[in-house]
């Protein structure tokens, strides 16, 4: 199944996550959650800039102008790339000090969808929120454990979502105008031997590219048939997320992690925590910026 070559971008993240393509800057962004680091890799110069924050940094998305939207612990902030100033926007779950944000994306009209989890990974302690311009978080799903990957179909009729330990990708009916979701079906069940589904993105054929934590690759799934289409094999076990980018949206940027690995495993898989870039035949979509 493997017919892909990869380029390695050194990053050595403990928990690399949230890859994002910024078309205007022609850069890929990603984060190292536990170390509070924000990375920007400029495609043309192949240079990487790193900023550090005194928080767990779980998410980076595009905001207005030169601002990025960051999730830091349980708070959302806009971050000015020029002045390096944080502007705090909203906080959730202040009564749950063990919780933090995890993965998130913006829908086609710029609302932020973002999940939470307990740093103890307590079953059922996470939720999925929708945040609109009024900055009032609206809970969409609860009783989650590790709120993770999400994607929308091109017609905005279907929202796909992952709660990692379930090993399922669920499809929800989605109403773009109201932002409401309604459970429809289990689209994909991940066999135990393939690891856990983590972050994901969708291509222009409607196939889901899913990072498999413990599965040593990105797997391309058909959410209509539930069948595995192909796999990108990678030389590290813990694959955390992926996104399409580049001028033709045919470069897949893939984040990985070093967490839950022994020193022996890290010697065996020394590229763990680095970021991989793979040219694909498939193309993705430009991500929607946040309009908070």
**Proportion of residues in extended strands:** over 45%
Helix content class: under 10%
Round the mean pLDDT to the nearest integer and report it: 97
Structural class: mainly beta
Radius of gyration over C-alpha positions, nearest whole angstrom: 17 Å
| E-strand count | 24
Neighbour order of strands in the largest sheet:
1-24-23-22
Low-confidence stretches: none
Distance between the termini: 41 Å
Q: Provide a count of the helices.
A: 1
Number of domains: 1
Please outline the major beta sheet.
4 strands, antiparallel
Q: Determine the CATH superfamily.
A: TolB, C-terminal domain
Q: What spatial form do the alpha-carbon principal axes imply?
A: globular
CATH topology: Neuraminidase
- Shape-level CATH architecture: 6 Propeller
The CATH class:
Mainly Beta
Order of helices and strands: EEEEEEEEEEEEEEEEEEEEEEEHE
């Amino acid at each position: 199944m493997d017919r892909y070559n990869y380029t390695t971008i050194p990053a050595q993240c403990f928990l690399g996550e949230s890859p994002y393509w910024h078309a205007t800057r022609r850069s890929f962004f990603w984060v190292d959650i536990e170390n509070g680091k924000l990375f920007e890799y400029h495609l043309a110069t192949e240079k990487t800039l790193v900023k550090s924050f005194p928080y767990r940094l779980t998410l980076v998305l595009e905001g207005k102008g030169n601002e990025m939207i960051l999730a830091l612990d349980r708070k959302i902030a806009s971050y000015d790339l020029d002045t390096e100033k944080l502007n705090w926007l909203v906080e959730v779950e202040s009564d749950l000090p063990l919780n933090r944000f995890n993965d998130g994306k913006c829908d086609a009209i710029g609302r932020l969808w973002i999940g939470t989890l307990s740093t103890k990974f307590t079953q059922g302690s996470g939720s999925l929120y929708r945040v609109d311009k009024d900055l009032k978080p609206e809970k969409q799903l609860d009783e989650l454990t590790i709120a993770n990957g999400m994607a929308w179909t091109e017609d905005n009729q279907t929202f796909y979502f992952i709660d990692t330990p379930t090993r399922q990708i669920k499809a929800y009916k989605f109403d773009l105008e109201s932002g409401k979701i309604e459970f429809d079906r289990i689209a994909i069940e991940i066999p135990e031997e393939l690891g856990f589904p983590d972050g994901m993105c969708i291509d222009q054929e409607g196939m889901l590219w899913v990072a498999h934590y413990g599965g040593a690759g990105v797997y391309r799934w058909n959410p209509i048939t539930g069948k595995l289409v192909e796999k990108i094999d990678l030389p590290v076990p813990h694959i955390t997320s992926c996104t399409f980018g580049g001028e033709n949206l045919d470069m897949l940027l893939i984040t990985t992690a070093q967490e839950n690995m022994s020193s022996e495993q890290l010697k065996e898989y020394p590229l763990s925590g680095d970021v991989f870039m793979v040219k694909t035949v498939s193309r993705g979509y430009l991500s929607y910026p946040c309009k908070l």
